[in-house]
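Give me the fold.
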Amino acid sequence: MVERIKIGLTFSYNEGWIGGTYYVMNLIHALNALDDVHKPFLIILSKDETDFEKVKAIQYPYIDYQLINKTDLSLPARIINKLARPIFKDNLIKIKPHKQKIDVLFWGTLDHYFRKIPIHLFWIPDFQEVHLPTFFSAKQIESRRKKYRHLVQQKKDIVFSSQDANNDFNQLFPNAKGNSFILNFAVSHPKEYKKRSIDTLKKKYDLTSPYFFCPNQFWKHKNHMLVLNSLKELKSKGQLNFTVAFSGKESDQRNPNYFKGLKTFVRENNLENNIRFLGFIDRKDQLQLMNHALAIVQPSLFEGWSTVVEDAKAMNQNIIISDLDVHKEQLGDTGYFFDRNSSIELTKQLMFFNQNQISRPEFHYEKKVHEFGDKFMTIIKKLIADNA
């Protein structure tokens, strides 16, 4: 009988950061694509039992589900810890740790609750706060920096989704001694999304003209305003005969007035007939709308490793995309790039697709999914061997 490596995966279904949710689900799909002998045993760790239903639908064969049960400390215990921390630099009374036998925890955490798990593999998606500090509060920036300093000081093992993020880390922490790995994630789509009638979806979402699709959360760094400025320019010239559909949760905790400002811009510039804000929509609807768009538009000012780009690659769809190094890392010469600060360049790309029949690329994406799972397990096996 095969002795399977036991990997704990922390998971939550979070529409506010759906990329993190999709990351874990895509990882499980990738592991499921491996030959049976190489599949690990997974323990899904979540604070909410309803989260497990999302994972169960994947039908991974070797899996268990564990609720994260952190028993709250009593008021006297919390008072004692508050008094002790300035003196001992730690709590005197600890939360009872998680007991399930797990070889490696991903994503790793500094949380005392998981201290008995021998190996923690951490994930740093990107260093957006370094490149775009004005989009963060001073408290948020310091919180991230504090965490990274702890990881470096404690020589923790870290995985990055891109070479671009790893380069940032090496510049920020040139003397870091822990292992660092680059793991490009890949996406897995539900096959049945293609069975959804595009005519029905167009009617459902009021898409009566040819359309581009921009499927990003409404965070300021996603750069939606550049798209709106392009449409304003085209409308002023009488050349706006298409629609741009946006999907995603319409809130940004860091910039709570951001989405409201977008809607105001649309109204003041009479763009209502050419813009559709779809909200957070069903994943299968989203994918089929992406599949039938003139092209995907990805105008972001910063990314770690874009799920939107991977979605486009998985369906062999064209993507009009900002000129970030990480985007070029993901796409090579298959993207239609524009200066992330230039609505003029974006306008040229939109008009190119609107006026021409553009063939679609071929990414042979199935192998990317297998590579994701295979490289993840290579990293896990190295960490186990190093700690033997």
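The CA atoms of residues 213 and 276 lie 9 Å apart.
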